[in-house]
# Entry
Amino acid sequence: MFKTKEFFAVYSLGAAGYSLLELLWRDFTHWTMALAGGTCFWLIYRAGDRFSAYPLWKRCCIGCGIITGVEFLVGCVVNLLLGLRVWDYSRQPFHLLGQVCPLYSALWFLLCAPLFPLARLLRRAFGGR
# Structure
């Protein structure tokens, strides 16, 4: 069972981090990306606990899948359903409906390398293992 304070701290860190990453990469962001980032980091935080015995590269594969999956779902709603055009990967090779592509999935894999150790530090700070 998670604690509310823990959830909001982890979620907020993910939301802020994802937004900052977008600002550094694209010079702009959208409020929906903060929601996606918070969700991604919370799921990575939880996966890090569940899969703590896995080597880092396997956890990075899991994290890559989490981020790519969240991006796809958010993209389908925000970009395709609501038409907000927050991002469009349709010019990237092997994209899926213009919402995800292998290039960014590979970048998410690399991003997970520091995220899992950060999640472990946060878990310890909140009294976890």
In short: Residues 37 and 107 are 15 Å apart (CA to CA). The first helix runs from residue 4 to 26. The chain has a mean pLDDT of 95. DSSP finds four helices and no strands in the chain.
